[in-house]
Amino acid sequence: MTRFLDGVEWLGNLLPHPVTLFAILAGLMILASGLFGGVMEVAVEDPRPEGASGRAADGMIRAVSLMNEDGFRRIFTSLTTNFTSFAPLGVVLVAMLGVGVAEKSGLLSAAVRSIVLGANRHTVTVAVVFAGVLSNTASEMGYVVLVPLAGAVFYALGRHPLAGMAAAFAGTSGGYSANLLIGTIDPLLAGITTEAAQLIDPGYVVSAPANWYFMVISTFMITVVGSLVTIFIVEPKLGKYDSSRADPAVLDKNMMQPVSGAEKKGLVWAGIATLAVFAAMAWTLMGDELSLSLPFIGSLFSFGVPDWLPGWGALRNPDTGSIFQQAPFFTGFVTWIFLFFLIVGFAYGRAAGTMKNDRDVIDGMASAISTLGLYIVLVFFAAQFVAFFGWSNLGAITAVTGAQFLTDTGMTGPAIFIGFILMCCFVNLMLGSASAQWAVTAPIFVPMLMLVGYSPEVIQAAYRIGDSSTNIITPMMSYFGLILAWMTRYDKNLGIGTVIAMMLPYSVAFLVIWVALFFLWTFGLGLPVGPGSPTFYEMPAG
Q1: Spatial distance between the Cα atoms of 190 and 205, rounded to a whole number of angstroms
Q2: What three-state secondary structure class fits 321?
Q3: What are residue 298's phi and psi, to 5 degrees?
Q4: Burial, 1: exposed, middle or buried (Cβ in 10 Å; 0-12, 13-18, 19+)?
Q5: Mutual orientation of helices 147-156 and 107-117 as an angle, nearest 10°?
Q6: pLDDT at position 493, please?
Q7: Within 198-332, where are the H helices?
Q8: Comparing C-alpha atoms, which of 95, 22, 137 is closest to residue 379?
Q9: Which of 143, 97, 177, 84 lies closest to 376, judged by CA?
Q10: What is the pLDDT of residues 109-137, one digit of tens each?
């Protein structure tokens, strides 16, 4: 198995840098559009009803060539707007402004340490995995802070430090699509899914919390499964720890750095600020009447809200009053992410003494944005590829052809998601970035599965299972090298095959149980994967 996975690593290293990969794909898309649109003139029948938005008068979807004068002019004049209008870019930048304040103040580090260090020996494994899942709200904190801290905690408790690091890595990366909170990855993926869905339905919008219900239940599943794999498989396999192969600098049991008094004070004020933000969120969803009732007691009070009180229920759907379907509260949820981390982070910083004024807040924001340089470059080329793909109509043609094939072969039932999830697992071994992988595959599979009858929200949830399950065994994952560096401090002879073999039980267990949970949740119990997220999709009537 180790030799096999080393072979996967070798094959993965043959791929170019993700930025180069998207540049190549954009160029190949131009060539493909010229072949299928200009030379072969490929066309398929549009399955949308007559009169539907974007449907041609003759009812056909035709491939469009970009290898002509019109195509060249469109590419040349739209290069900038393709980039600036790319949905995931804005939401990630806005969210990271708030996360940067929380990180700069020390809130994220103190919160993670308080969860882990507050656990006793018997519950520390569960606490490490659970903290790893929660840390992916600001993903780098789990890799940079929690993984090395878990190694130190396990060593201090007389356990194998690599087992602790494996548990933290499994929770942080294997549980990347599970959380109790909405993180920066949610609006990012939702933006990509929206663009892919609009190839079929131009008015369709996927909100950031589209998978939130399924994420919450997945959090507890990942915590339980990750803890059991650590206790009964990984730690026994590692055996007794031999400290002679470690860097002496990491063997100091005082490295755990308990949460200080100032940090505890900061966490108290952060908790107060969190309640205030949650109260503000509830305020924007309340109706025209405020009431409180308790079981067996009945109504305690009920009164109308004065007209002069602004914003009461302002983020409901202004037409229907719904708090889920197309409600500004969720469609603009990235604003809440920004405000939450900004307010709570600054409250912590002021109380802990790590932030004093607006300059510290601005420094935190600037620091967060400065870490996104590579992401911004990646988005530029990914946006061009997505735009070219949409202009050529090849995505819609592929979706219609694929959906027709699935219909002809009878592969339209829920079992189709097994093949889709396994495909995502395989692609993730070669292209470790969740956003990069989804940017490539979403324009094909979201329209295809929509035409078969499944909603973009459910398709996205299935994709996230495949992506997260193999994060921990692919060297192409962004932080895999960092994890390897952390682990070699405890074992200088550690190789990449050892790391992959150690993480493989987590990957297999997560995949099998997560897929079973997905089918039970969506098709067995008929529960939605998120607020306002349907399971099935029907083509609009017109």
Answers
A1: 8
A2: coil
A3: 95, -160
A4: exposed
A5: 30
A6: 77
A7: 212-229, 235-238, 261-283, 328-331
A8: 22
A9: 84
A10: 787 677 666 667 678 899 899 988 987 76
* pLDDT value for 269: 95
pLDDT in tens, 307-319: 555 556 778 877 7
Q: How far apart are CA 4 and CA 205, in angstroms?
A: 41
Alpha-carbon distances, residue 37 vs 29, 68, 445 (angstroms)? 11, 10, 21
304 sits in which H/E element: strand 298-304
Buried b / exposed e across 151-186, counting CB within 10 Å, b at 16+?
Answer: bbbbbbeebbbbbbbbbbbbbbbbbbbbbeebbbbb
Listed residue (271, 269, 350) closest to 101, CA to CA: 350
Residue 34 main-chain phi, psi, to 5 deg? -65, -40
> What is the rounded distance in angstroms from the CA atom of residue 21 to the CA atom of residue 15?
8
Whether 325 has a pLDDT exceeding 80, the answer reads no
164-178, 189-203, 269-283, 434-448, range with the lowest pLDDT: 434-448
Query: ∠ CA 308-310-311 to the nearest 5 degrees?
Result: 150
Phi then psi dihedrals of residue 83, to 5 deg: -70, -50
Q: Could you read off the pLDDT of 151-197 as tens digits, one per residue? A: 877 887 778 999 999 999 999 888 888 888 777 678 878 888 998 88
Structure token pair of residue 57: 């008068």
Q: Which of 1-5, 224-228, 389-393 has the highest mean pLDDT?
A: 224-228
Per-residue buried b or exposed e for 227-238, using 16+ beta carbons within 10 Å of the residue's own CB? bebbeebbbeeb
On average, the pLDDT of the chain sits at: 81
φ, ψ (nearest 5 deg) of residue 219:
-60, -45
As given in the structure block, the two tokens for residue 264 are 């505890």
pTM of the model: 0.68
Token reading at 282 = 């509830």
